[in-house]
Amino acid sequence: MMRLAVRIFFLLVLLLLALTAGAGYLFYKAWHSPGPLVADTTIVIDPGSHTVTIGQDLQQAGIVQDWRLFVLGVKLFSNGRPLRAGEYKFGAGMSPEQVMHMLVSGATYARRVTVPEGYTTAQALKLVAGAEGLVGDMP
After folding, report:
1. Which phi and psi (to 5°) does residue 27 adopt?
2. Under CATH, which architecture does the 33-105 domain have?
3. Per-residue confidence of the chain (139 residues) as pLDDT tens digits?
4. Chain centroid to CA 13: how far?
């Protein structure tokens, strides 16, 4: 009877190891595979946003397939570094890993405005206020 119990125990341990290895493989494959995004997309991450909220926003924008996979990957691979706020432009087919690295590094999308030489402060402020995509209060 004892031998049967030991055999069952070892079979259960082997089954658990096989399931864990299979789940790890599926996670690895999903983490490194291209994401669902088919065209470049810009998204704003608000300051103080929690990782779960960011993951849900990324899924809603079509940047990542599953926000839970993204959050788990961030917890495992970001080495405790936070995701940074800002405006980000994500390229088509970016993997969840690439998205995480972009958010951890703070590689935000830079908008450029050229102010011609000789413009007054009022003219420069008007030019900035009319620039596409810029939001926020003007001085």
Report:
1. -65, -45
2. 2-Layer Sandwich (3.30)
3. 788 888 999 999 999 999 999 998 989 999 999 999 999 999 999 999 999 999 999 999 999 999 999 999 999 999 999 999 999 999 999 999 999 999 999 999 888 889 999 999 999 988 888 888 777 777 7
4. 35
